[in-house]
Specification:
427 residues, Alpha-Beta Plaits, alpha+beta, four-stranded antiparallel β-sheet, Aminopeptidase
C-alpha cells in the first residue's frame, strides 16, 4: 500500500460506553490545577499562606535567564491599585509583558504575562502582589505561546473553528486554559439549556462552571475548579460557540488515495452525517467479535452512537471507502483532556491488510498537529490487530489494565512525523 497526496496539511472529540454518551473532554481524570514548582506555592493564594520572601530573585548576582509566568489577581477598582502592584513586582526585577483586565462587581481581575529572573518562585510573586493589596492570586509557568496577544489569539481560534467545527472544544480549551468540557445532546421536551438569554450562563455561586447552548441545541458545560471564570471569559466563549452555530454544518475538503495490494484503490476522507447509512451497513457486515472489540459492550447498541460520532461537532472521524463508495473502515479521534483516544473499526474481510494502520497514522498525525501530547487506545489483549497498529507507530508506548481492558498510550512527538511500519502493509 502506498500513500498519494499524503503530505496535504490536515486542519488543526465522544467516547462510547454501553450506557450512553461520554464527554467531549472529560477524559479519565478530573481537571486539576496546573503543575507548578512543588515547593513554590503555585495556585490560588490565601492570607494564611502569605510570606514576605526576598526582595530579589538572584541574591548571588548571577546572570540567570528570564522565565515567563502567567498570573491572575483581583485588585480594588480604584486609582493607584495597579501602580502599587507594578511597583511591588518591580522589586523582584519582574517585567510585565502583557496585561488584560476583567471587570467585576467588587473589583477588577488583572491577568498578567510576566518575565521574571529564573530564580523567582510563585510564592514570591504571590507575596508581593498581596502586599500591594491584591487577593485570589493564581500563578502558572508560561511559555512562548503566551506571547501572542489576546486579540490575535481570539481571531486565530475563531478562524480554526470557522474552518472545522471539530475545532470548537480545542478552541474553547485554548481560550480558557485547563478545563473539562462536556456536551449533553438535545432531547425532545428539554427546557432551555442556558441562561436568561438562551445562550450562556455562569454559576454565580462558585464561578467555576459555565453553561453554553451547543450548535445542535444541547448544552456545553465548561468547568475549571481551580480558577473562577470572569464575565469577560463567558462572553468570549459564548461568541465562539455562536460563531460555530451560525456557520452551520461544514467540513474541510481532504481526501487521500490508498492502494491495497491485490485489492485496488481506496479513499480516506473525513466523515460527516451523510455517511450514516453506509456506516450502519458496515456494522451489519462486521462480526459480533469485531464490534465487541470496538465498542466494549453490547453490540446491539453500536448503531445508535453513529449519528453522534459522525457529527463534526462531536469529533473527527475518518472513513475508508472503496471505489464503489462502500465504507469498509472507520477511525475516530476522541479528545480527552491532555490525552486523546483513538478507535478503529475495519470490516472483517479487509482486516490485516494495513488499512487500520493507515487510519491510525492519520489520526495520530491529526492529534500531533493539534498539539496533543499522547494518544491512547482502549482494547483487549486479544486484539492483535490494534496492538500491531499501535506498535507500528514507532512511538514510546505504555501499557496498563483498567477495568478488565488494556489501555495502550503512545507519547506523541509533534515535531516528528510518524509512520506505520512498512513491513505490515499488504499482510
Amino acid at each position: 500500500m502506498k500513500r498519494v497526496n499524503d503530505e496535504r496539511p490536515a486542519p488543526s472529540w465522544f467516547r462510547l460506553t454501553p450506557s450512553g454518551f461520554r464527554a467531549w473532554w472529560t477524559g479519565r481524570h478530573e481537571p486539576s490545577p496546573p503543575a507548578g514548582d512543588t515547593d513554590t506555592g503555585a495556585g490560588p493564594s490565601s492570607p494564611a499562606g502569605r510570606r514576605t520572601g526576598q526582595a530579589g530573585a538572584d541574591p548571588l548576582g548571577l546572570d540567570l535567564p528570564a522565565v515567563l509566568w502567567r498570573m491572575r489577581a483581583t485588585v480594588r477598582d480604584e486609582p493607584g491599585s495597579l501602580a502599587a502592584l507594578c511597583d511591588r513586582l518591580a522589586r523582584l526585577g519582574v517585567d510585565i509583558v502583557s496585561l488584560q483586565t476583567h471587570p467585576l462587581a467588587d473589583g477588577v481581575v488583572d491577568e498578567f504575562l510576566l518575565r521574571a529572573p529564573a530564580g523567582t518562585t510563585a510564592a514570591e510573586l504571590t507575596s508581593e502582589v498581596e502586599l500591594a493589596g491584591g487577593w485570589d492570586v493564581w500563578t502558572e509557568r508560561g511559555d512562548a505561546h503566551d506571547l501572542v496577544d489576546a486579540p490575535t489569539r481570539a481571531v486565530a481560534l475563531a478562524t480554526r473553528t470557522a474552518l472545522d467545527p471539530s475545532e470548537l472544544p480545542l478552541a474553547l480549551r485554548q481560550l480558557l486554559g485547563r478545563c473539562a468540557i462536556r456536551q449533553v445532546p438535545a432531547r425532545p421536551g428539554d427546557a432551555s439549556v442556558a441562561g436568561p438569554d438562551g445562550t450562556a450562563e455562569l454559576d454565580e455561586e462558585t464561578g467555576t462552571r459555565m453553561r453554553l447552548r451547543a450548535p445542535d441545541g444541547g448544552a456545553i458545560t465548561v468547568e475549571r475548579p481551580y480558577l473562577p471564570f470572569t464575565p469577560a471569559e463567558l462572553a468570549r466563549a459564548r461568541a465562539l460557540v455562536e460563531l460555530d452555530s451560525r456557520l452551520g454544518p461544514r467540513l474541510p475538503l481532504s481526501e487521500d488515495l490508498l492502494t491495497v495490494p491485490g485489492a485496488g484503490h481506496f479513499t480516506v476522507r473525513r466523515a460527516d452525517p451523510r455517511d450514516l447509512e453506509a456506516a450502519k451497513a458496515l456494522h451489519a457486515r462486521c462480526s459480533t467479535q469485531t464490534l465487541r472489540r470496538r465498542y466494549h459492550g453490547p453490540v446491539g447498541d453500536a448503531d445508535r452512537y453513529l449519528r453522534h460520532l459522525l457529527s463534526p461537532n462531536f469529533g473527527r472521524t475518518l472513513v475508508v471507502e472503496t471505489g464503489q463508495g462502500q465504507v469498509v473502515g472507520l477511525g475516530h479521534l476522541l479528545w480527552d483532556g491532555d490525552e486523546t483516544e483513538v478507535a478503529l473499526l475495519v470490516e472483517d474481510a479487509w482486516q490485516r491488510r494495513g488499512i487500520g494502520g493507515e487510519l491510525l497514522y492519520r489520526l495520530v498525525r491529526m492529534a500531533a498537529e493539534a498539539g496533543c501530547e499522547a494518544v491512547y487506545a482502549v482494547t483487549q489483549a486479544s486484539n492483535t490487530g490494534m496492538l500491531a497498529a499501535m506498535r507500528g507507530l514507532d512511538l514510546p508506548l505504555e501499557y496498563q489494565v483498567e477495568e478488565g481492558t488494556l489501555v495502550i498510550t503512545a507519547r506523541v512527538e509533534p515535531v516528528r512525523p510518524v509512520t506505520p511500519a512498512p513491513s505490515r502493509l499488504g499482510e
